Amino acid sequence: MSEDAGARRAAWYPWAGPGLLAVGLVAVGVSFAAPTKSLQTVGWTEEQAVAHQAAAAELHRLSYAPATNTAAADARRSAEKAFRELDRRLIEASEAPYRWRALLRYGGILLCVAGAFAVIAFPV
Predict the structure, then answer these.
(1) What CA–CA distance (Å, rounded) separates 8 from 14?
(2) Sign of the CA dihedral 62, 66, 67, 71?
(3) Where does residue 96 rank: exposed (0-12), middle (13-18), buried (19+ CB within 10 A)?
(4) Are 56 and 28 in contact (CB under 8 A)?
(5) Which residue from 16, 84, 107, 108 could staple onto 24, CB 3.0 to 4.6 Å apart?
(6) DSSP string for 67-96
(7) CB 100 within 8 A of CB 42
(8) Contact 20, 107 (CB under 8 A)
(9) Between these two residues, 46 and 30, which has the higher pLDDT value?
């Protein structure tokens, strides 16, 4: 390694620890301050809400109907499958902001720990 490369590395090296610490603190701050709507990555439309409600009502209706033949049992299974798919999408849409918050928060904490370690272990 040449002297020039060592000097360039030495120029940014003292700022690596505090930089990681600062980026980590910003990420943790954003995880607390970001509005939920801005972290919504999976949309849930009015049409999907209506379809979810209709699937729930159909499943409820079929669950109380006696399954006297295979056609009724098949209808109940298909209604349950449709409801479970729509319900999975609803849960995914409602939990998306919290996944982003957790990613920002824990990633920020990890960066803070790495930055603090760099500041303590490698003083200038």
Answers:
(1) 11
(2) negative
(3) middle
(4) no
(5) 108
(6) --SHHHHHHHHHHHHHHHHHHHHHHHHHHH
(7) no
(8) no
(9) 30
